[in-house]
Amino acid sequence: MGKALFITGTGTDIGKTYVTGLIVKKLVGAGLRAGYYKAALSGAEVAADGTLLPGDALHVAHAAGLAPEDATVSYIYRDAVSPHLAAQIEKRPMDFDKVEQDYHVAKERTDYLTVEGSGGIICPLRWDNEEHVILDDLVLRLGLSALVVADAGLGTINAAVLTAEHLKIRGIPLVGFIFNNWTGGRMQEDNVTMVETLTGARVLACVEHDAAELPIAADVLAALYQ
Ligand SMILES: Nc1ncnc2c1ncn2[C@@H]1O[C@H](COP(=O)(O)OP(=O)(O)OP(=O)(O)O)[C@@H](O)[C@H]1O
Ligand SMILES: C[C@H](N)[C@H](N)CCCCCC(=O)O
Ligand SMILES: [Mg+2]
Predict the structure, then answer these.
(1) N or C: which end of the chain has fewer CB within 10 A?
(2) Is 210 touching ligand 1 by the criterion CB < 6 Å?
(3) For the chain, what are the domain ranges?
(4) Which residues are annotated as a binding site for Mg(2+)?
């Protein structure tokens, strides 16, 4: 059974998949058996034959050179809305026993499994007459620690600290942050200081736009997986 790490973000489109591609690439480059798993993807592209494409998994597999079977998604929804709503629209609610089973299969195939969330940490996955499940409930069920991807720019102090505080309230261990779309300069350097001071967690790496490599040593990265 391998180790795993959950990647969340301060919100949707913040760069979780992009950064995860660099994370998995770094692990693969160090000769480690790495994989990717996502429970629910919404806003999927539709292939010519009508199949819904697992876009995030395809990106990570391509970026890191993974075999398709090492980058999997349990539920793929067409509409670009929260997974709970996409599931309601398609009348295809998530079954969390299946998610847990798929997660364990993915974890057994690899030594370092990177698990990407949907949206931010408070993303509803199922909301119907039978079950109310938020992403943080699933993270707790799977027993994962979290790494938070945040934008490097203005507004990140609030978003990053709120995410860290929510993880703490829910009892989800926070291993650190990665700042995305880093340009440097006085304000962004101060964002690092303020987020570290207010959360007690480290900003482990800062990723520039179009970066091809994650600026962190592979052994430091691998040590975050539990
Ligand atoms: N550092 C970066 N350099 C270049 N493009 C980036 C970078 N970070 C993010 N992007 C681009 O921004 C868009 C949103 O990023 P991404 O898909 O990684 O977000 P996400 O947090 O995974 O979203 P979701 O909640 O849908 O999973 C994508 O087109 C992605 O390629
Ligand atoms: C469609 C989008 N790209 C993501 N897959 C889902 C984002 C859900 C966000 C929910 C919310 O916080 O309002
Ligand atoms: Mg994504």
Answers:
(1) N
(2) yes
(3) 3-222
(4) 17, 56, 116
